[in-house]
Fold this sequence. Notes:
36% of the residues lie in helices and 21% in strands. The protein is α/β, with parallel strands linked by helices.
Amino acid sequence: MSSHPTNPIQTPPDSAAPNSIFPGEVFAKTAEFDLYIRQLLPRYDEMLEAIARCIPSQAKRILDLGCGTGELSIKVLQRCPDVQVVGVDYSSRMIEFATTKLETAGYRQQWTGIEGDFGDWANHQLSVGQGFDACISSLAIHHLTDETKVKLFIQIWENLNPGGMFWNADPVVPESPILSEMYKRIREEWCVQQGTTLAEVRTKTGKSISYGYSQPDQLATLAAHLEMLKAAGFESVAVPWKYYGLAVFGGEKAKGRG
């Protein structure tokens, strides 16, 4: 990864304070991510399935930004048997974990992991390939500033094939204080249903530090995200799934656009 004069890379978590992690890694132990994220976020699997269902089964190349443990990649591969997926993540331990996980699931030949900051890609400082039928992401882009989000959406649009789609699953700013409080209660109730408490799950998280272009939560409203997508060139935007402060949103590149 390259450094940025206005956005310097911080000390990597592995050599920083105990339990310090990149934004997006969430939990101190990578092997615990898949378990605890399902306790922390209501309907996590349903959210990822919504993205997988929005990808045409005939898609051949997909880019997974902030691929993490590879869970979203697997859900897409289960629905698109002939697809090749390129996963990008700046966490070496996430890439290593995802690679092993995809291999165990039988998808190693269809999945390639790239260790890199997709903020670099947004600023034309990283190569991940081009000509994708779809771009997907989950729980990663909300760590970028709005300015970098727009740059990333433009880069995604430019690297999609005509008719290609982009779908992102992320937390968004609730539309009102009442909904904000309701979502907090929903999360607490969800944890209880999973046999734990929100406070207990949070003891498993690490201390998030800024790294590259990513910072701790930089949330925006759903409406703001849709406007960013339109500004980036997406003529058709949609929200196929939403549950209080979580949403799947994105858009389609017009078939006549190069």
